[in-house]
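User: Can you recover a sequence for this backbone? Please restate the input before giving your answer.

Assistant: Of course. Working from this structure:
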């Protein structure tokens, strides 16, 4: 279940924007809220976004669809494809877009973050929260080298995946998680399954409204 996500420099959002599904303590008890794995927290299964036409409502869904696709399916893209991320136009294509996604799976809280352009992933990290300390410990991470050499890749001890396996397969236009999923690691698959979003919105807008299919 998704807890929250943030976007920055994406479509019409130049500055950081956050969408949270966390529910305040004063909210009533009803079927639209679900218990969180965190004590005394609840998450909403419904969320409404209101605003006038062209205010960015669809862009929020586009961001969620993009993050979900990039994390889980981007390895299926062709090696020379550009990353289908649309930055805030006035900043230009070289300014990175930034994303974070916090979600719950298998009784734990995870956090994913990425900074990328249409040509490459600059930084990327998947972390899991320690329930005792509240701190996040990395599971997978990458850092672009800044030159033509391969990015630096780290794999946490919790994942039984040799770093060399990912390093040999990692591409500039695919997420490290999507790459690691190619190993068939069952634990990683179980963590990522809850964030595979299904929406009626693609990168070009709503399906059936002059958008991509």
């Amino acid at each position: 279940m998704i807890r929250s996500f943030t976007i920055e420099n994406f479509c019409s959002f130049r500055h950081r924007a956050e969408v949270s599904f966390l529910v305040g303590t004063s909210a009533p008890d009803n079927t639209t809220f679900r218990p969180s794995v965190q004590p005394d927290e609840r998450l909403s299964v419904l969320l409404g976004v209101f605003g006038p036409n062209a205010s960015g409502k669809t862009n929020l869904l586009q961001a969620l669809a993009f993050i979900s696709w990039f994390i889980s399916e981007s390895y299926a893209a062709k090696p020379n494809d550009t990353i289908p991320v649309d930055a805030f136009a006035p900043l230009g294509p070289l300014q990175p877009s930034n994303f974070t996604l916090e979600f719950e799976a298998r009784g734990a809280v995870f956090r994913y973050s990425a900074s990328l352009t249409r040509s490459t992933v600059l930084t990327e990290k998947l972390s899991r929260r320690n329930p005792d300390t509240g701190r996040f410990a990395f599971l997978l991470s990458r850092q672009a080298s800044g030159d033509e050499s391969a990015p630096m890749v780290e794999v946490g001890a919790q994942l039984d995946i040799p770093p060399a396996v990912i390093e040999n397969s990692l591409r500039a236009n695919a997420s490290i998680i999507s790459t690691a999923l190619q190993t068939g690691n069952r634990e990683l698959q179980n963590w990522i399954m809850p964030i595979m979003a299904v929406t009626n919105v693609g990168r070009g807008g709503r399906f059936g409204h002059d958008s991509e299919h």
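That completes the design. The CA atoms of residues 14 and 88 lie 6 Å apart.
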